[in-house]
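Supplementary Note 2. Why include the ligand at all?

Several targets in our set were suspected to adopt different conformations when bound, so apo predictions alone were not considered sufficient. For every target with a known small-molecule partner we therefore ran a joint prediction. The input for NDP is given below.
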Amino acid sequence: MAARIMDGKGSAAEIRSELASSVKAHLAAGYSSPCLAAILVGEDAASQVYVRNKQRACEQVGIDSQLHRLADTTSQDELLRLVNDLNHNKQVHGILIQLPLPDQIDATQVLDAVSPLKDVDAFHPANVGLLSQGRPRFLPCTPHGVQQLLHRCEVSIAGKHAVVVGRSDIVGKPMAMLLAARNSTCGPEVANATVTVCHSRTADLAEVTRQADLLIAAIGRPQAITPDMVKPGAVVVDVGINRTADGLVGDVDFAGVREVAAQITPVPGGVGPLTVAMLLFNTLTAAQQQAGNSTH
Ligand code: NDP
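The joint prediction is reproduced in token form.
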């Protein structure tokens, strides 16, 4: 039987509606509108679409947004000055630097310059440290989105074997940390997994992925996960977004793996919309924390 499709779009809409209520409550308590400032450097077409989607999503839940567009010739110092201004701007609660940045810019230095209190992407080393100690200030958007999706699709992973393919700082590593944690924003059932992390030097990838009850692909290679790599009845989450001549495809051979797995995320319409929703969640969290109106 073909796998059930995990509806990321629907779950993201649910989360946005919950966030819209929380934003209303924040305003009703007398606090100012949460505000996300996005910085976009250069003319990268995909980045422009991503930033526009994020701004539109902000609007839908009542979060203000600012877009700071800079030329692709912008210097490191100019960009750092803008980040510093936004760090000190009390109207701005969250700062997002759209990646990739042009070659003349040292992205690590710029990301590290964002105030940890406004670091809604959860990239700052201080926030990564807090996360690794199990007391996060902000949760990384894509991994948190995956957990929310699992929860909303009634997938329990406690005590199960999760295999994460990919070990990047943005997806693979924090994903593994969240899955192995004792608890999550959705309760202990979408945490407490036994986690294996794979990467390009993993000796026999298929041998490892076939052991996964939950398989998460964050590789960046079109359709790298084939049906023979998946245990029958597994839950398969495809984080990959690859632009090919045939359009957007994930890291999983969707048509093939769908015949083996119990549940699977599509691309597009899977993890992507959740990532944006969790960015809004973090922006509201940042506003609540800065206003002293926080349970976090
Ligand atoms: P990176 O390129 O930073 O990391 C890719 C990881 O995959 C690396 O750890 C790499 O291993 C591993 N890898 C590469 N090839 C293989 C292979 N043949 N076998 C096993 N492992 C391999 O990518 P990101 O983590 O940033 O992103 C991954 C994918 O997710 C991309 O398609 C990206 O576009 C997408 N993405 C989607 C988001 C969403 O919202 N849906 C958000 C963020 C990213 P090694 O470390 O050894 O090099």
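The mean pLDDT is 97. Residues 8-28 form the longest helix (21 residues). Comparable summaries for the other entries are listed in the accompanying table.
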